[in-house]
Amino acid sequence: MRKIVMVPAIAAASLTVAACGGEAATDATSDVAPITAEEVAAAQQGWGEGIVNIGKVYSEGGDFAAAATDHINTFYAYEDGNEILFKPTLAAEDQFRGTFDEALSYFIGKEGTEDGGFAIAPYTAVRWENEGTIIDEDSAMAMGNYYFTNTEGNETKVEYTFGYTRNEAGELVINLHHSSLPFSAE
Predict the structure, then answer these.
(1) Which of 53, 100, 109 is nearest to 80 (CA)?
(2) pLDDT tens for residues 144-172?
(3) Residues 6 or more apart from 110 whose CB is under 8 A from it?
(4) What strands, in cross-sheet order, belong to the sheet with 155-166?
(5) How far is CA 1 from CA 137, 168, 170, in A?
(6) Which is nearest to 140 in space by CA: 5, 74, 43, 7?
(7) Cβ–Cβ under 8 Å, residues 165 and 39
(8) Which of 4, 51, 152, 175 falls between 20 and 30 A from 135, CA-CA?
(9) What confidence score (pLDDT) does residue 123 get?
């Protein structure tokens, strides 16, 4: 709701500047359309396809680090200098990944860390089942299960919560990513 509160102040400042004979600057965020459920679903689909692509590039001997870098830059808000809350599924020692480099390490692995390279597994598909999506004009949250299909056709169920916002270019990006394996009493 922060942007909604700021818009009247920006509009008032623009009117003041215009009244004084100056040119009013416009705030790009005031012209941004509210986030839609369809955009969230498209972002989820694209994110899953990106994970599959990283593993495919790795399996084919390609530049998987570049594929992962592109994936992170496309789907996460690191580039805009925003704070990212990222708790990956397979992270115990370094539980949270607030920087681009930490996210990259998780996705492709890094020697000397617990990171084995989640995205280079590889996976052949990612399927989403949203429990629900909450949209508040300039942000959205989705929670549910997503399923990662390995090369043998077996699915791994993972619980997730993703938060979305728009980046400076107006694209939907992740600013909150929490995922974990379902609890097992055994």
Answers:
(1) 100
(2) 999 999 999 999 999 999 999 999 889 99
(3) none
(4) 85-87, 172-180, 155-166, 139-150, 123-135
(5) 8, 17, 17
(6) 43
(7) no
(8) 51
(9) 95
Helix (H, G, I), strand (E, B) or coil at 129: strand
Residue pLDDT, tens place only, 36-57: 999 999 999 999 999 999 999 9
Strand partners, 76: 174
Residue for token digits 């839609």?
Answer: 36
Span 19-36, pLDDT tens digits: 344 444 444 445 678 999
Residue linked to tokens 């040119």 = 23
What is the distance between the alpha carbons of residues 132 and 140, in angstroms, rounded to a whole number?
11
| CB 145, CB 158: distance < 8 Å | yes
115-121-99-136 Cα dihedral, nearest 10 degrees = -130
**Which residue from 162, 151, 143 is spatially nearest to 121, judged by alpha carbons?**
151
> Taking 50 as the threshold, does the pLDDT of residue 10 lie above it?
no
**Angle (CA) 125 131 134, round 5°:** 110
pTM summary value = 0.79
Inter-residue contact 136 to 122 (CB < 8 Å): no
